[in-house]
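ERR on first pass: missing label on line 2. Operator R.T. fixed the label and resubmitted. Corrected input:
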Amino acid sequence: MRAIGKGSLASILAAGLHAVRIVIFIAFFGLSIAAVIMPFLPMLERVSDGIVSIDGGTVSGGDYVKLMSYFVSFGVMLFIVNRLLEILKTLRFGSPFVRENAVRFRQVGYALLLGEGAKIAFGILGAIFDAELKGGTELTTWIAIVAVFVLAEVFLEGAKMKEEQDLTV
Amino acid sequence: MAILVKLDRVLLDRGMSLTELSDRVGVTIANLSILKTGKAKAIRFSTLEAICKELSCQPGDILFYEEEG
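pass 2 clean. output:
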């Protein structure tokens, strides 16, 4: 099976990523609504009192930290999946060695960096507000981040070489 | 770029069109246009040889060096 072009491995991967994107988008959308509503839950409970029975429970700071951590995680995931889909598009419909892909890989690297930074920050906040959050960081993630930045440089060099080749008569 | 391509001048002297040269040397018009307009980053010896053969000229008749300033 071909790796690039139409009907290739890249096409199958893109189809899978499209499905993943929809799931992440729905989760992200739901989390966005929850993030907006959550601080007003006790107030909504008071307002609805006597009309309908809403049991929102007590919203602690820890719950909000947990929600925000998921919100940032899904936001980062959505951003990365979108960039990967754009990269796969160039793989399917032409040459992947374009300067835009180097920029996209760099953006993925920064997003991973942000995600990891947020994980550490929310881990600390979780400990403060007593939220059940898995904080800390892993070495493999940092290796992956460095690898993505290296890949971005490889693509930039590849793009430069391709430009030169295209302009060789 | 410091290297100037004077292909259009040689073509004019020989009374040959770019299309005709393209047919003779087997290089696409698009590529010859890149060369003629000075956008090319490199030229293969085989291309230069074919152009010089068809235009009965020397590489120095097509390529010039000009100090950048």
